[in-house]
Amino acid sequence: MAEKGASRGRSTRMTGRERREQLVAVGRQVFAEKGFDMSSVEEIAARATVSKPIVYEHFGGKEGLYAVVVDREVSTLLADLERSLSDQRAHPRLLMERAALAFLSYIDENEAGFRILVRDSPVSQAGGTFSSLLTDVAQRVEDILAAQLKMHSYPTRDATLYAQMLVGMVAYTGQWWVETRTPTKEVVAARMVNLSWYGLVALQKEPTLRQDARG
C-alpha cells in the first residue's frame, strides 16, 4: 500500500517544464490583476502552491517572469495581426476589417494578457512594451497604406503618419472596449473601419487647416 501511495505521489509531481508553464499562467493572472509593481513573488508562489525559491529557480525573480509573460502576449497578438494581413491580394478595406477584428478578438480571448500589455512596464523591461508593439503593427500597416497611396498618386511620405493614426485609434478603442464589452467586437470593428476607410478614400492630397482654425 505504501508503495502505491508513493507511486501516485510521484506520478502527479510536475516536471520542470510543467512547473514553468504553471508559474507563467499564475504570474500572468497576478500581473493582470495587480500590475507589476503591486505583484510579488510571495503571492505568485502562494497561488502556485510552491516555495519562493522555485520561482527564482525558473525565472530569477519577478522581472524575469514578467518578461516571459509579456513576450508571449506580444508574440500572440503580433501573430494574430500578421495572419489577418497576410493576403496581399485582398482589398485594402478587407485587410483593415480583418486586422481590426483580429485585435479585438485577441482582447476578447486574452483579456488578462491585454491588461498586462497596456500597463506601464517596469523600468528594467526595455522591450516588449505596448508602445513598441504598436510600433511594429504600425510599420506593417504603413506598407499597405504606402502601396495604396502610390497607386492613387498620393504622397507616400504620409503613409507613416496615417498608419500611426489608424493603429492609435484601434488600440485606444480596444482599451475602452475591454471595459465595456458592448457593442459586440464585430460592430466595433465595422464602425472603426467605416470611420477610417471613408476618411481615407476622400483624402485630400495636400490637406491644410482652414484659416479660422489657426486663429
TrEMBL record:
PROSITE patterns: HTH_TETR_1, HTH_TETR_2
Domain HTH tetR-type, residue spans: 17-77
Keywords from the named record: DNA-binding, Transcription, Transcription regulation
DNA-binding residues: 40-59
InterPro entries: DesT_TetR_C, DNA-bd_HTH_TetR-type_CS, Homeodomain-like_sf, HTH-type_TetR-like_transc_reg, HTH_TetR, Tet_transcr_reg_TetR-rel_C_sf
GO molecular function: DNA-binding transcription factor activity; transcription cis-regulatory region binding
Biological processes per GO annotation: negative regulation of DNA-templated transcription
Keyword Disulfide bond included in the entry's annotation: no
Name of this protein: TetR family transcriptional regulator
